[in-house]
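Hi L., both proteins are below.
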Amino acid sequence: MSMPLVRNPGEGTTYTYYDTVQEQVVSHTETGGAVTVARLVMRQQDAPLLHSHSREDESWVVLAGRVRFWVGSTSLDECEVHEAVEGAYVFGPRFVPHTFQPITETAQVLVINNPGAVEEYFRSVGAADGRHDEDHVDMLTRYGLTLFGPPPVPKGDPRHPER
């Protein structure tokens, strides 16, 4: 049974996901499976591959910085693109392909999944020298995630359109 809680920044448990440290603000174990919330500081190279979830809806609250979201297609070129500024709330329903990337050098984001079991995937990946989602396709599939394509290219990368 879940209990009400108040958790201030820095009071959650932390874990390493690839080469970043994330704060588990609230765990699905604390909410009876209803929700999981993670706080992360993202860099442009931390953008996930274009993907969808079949088991949960995903929401984001931009706490600092600006974040670009691609939604609605299995190809980045065909997605709708939206910019979310500090304080923005973004909702991504299950089955809708999406990805996101800071526009600013970094962005602090709350990532909210309803229901919350997908947090076990993030915790189980552990440390690595950078994102390698394609190395975890079997595990992603077990958690109901489908990968569609590469992540957005970070600024400064020779392939970025605004180099």
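That was the first. Here is the second:
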Amino acid sequence: MKKTYYLFILMTLFTCVFLYSGQKISQKSKISNQQECVVLIHGFLRSSNHLKDLRNFLIEKGYYVVSIDYESTSMTIQEIADSKLSHLSDVCQNQKTHFVTHSLGGIILRSYLNSNHIKHLGNTVMLAPPNQGSEVADFLSQFHVINLFLGPVVAQLKTDQTSFVHSLGLPKFKFGIVEGNLTLDPFSS
């Protein structure tokens, strides 16, 4: 028990340092012919600021980075995907385009790629995507008042086989998933 407690404290401190440190590093306003593009898509109730350290790291390594920002409580997953990802071919031009997504960001990308094609699609890394739905969404979707504040995405992420997330099927693109078995959020676990 003590070992788990100390691991939890260590992971909490690491996360605080990782998420809240560092300044934004600037990049050229246009992608060069030698650069590959990396698109970052944050999770539910977050912003692109949540992935800023990853963004800075990738810029330092020479990638052109696009951080997608969206309001997760006012639109459906399909609306977010269509409105926020449809311009990527203009931004990344004809360069190889990779994705790093967190949580809901992975579902948004899967939704977009189910009906759209990216010419030079590279690799995708999904960090903790709710690919089989979310038990938290199951619980929260029971409360009408909460759904008014959290928006339509919650119902789309339920675990039942008729939910939107289950309609996406197996992705038809190259991807890797990073999952964990320890949480820093005891309330939604």
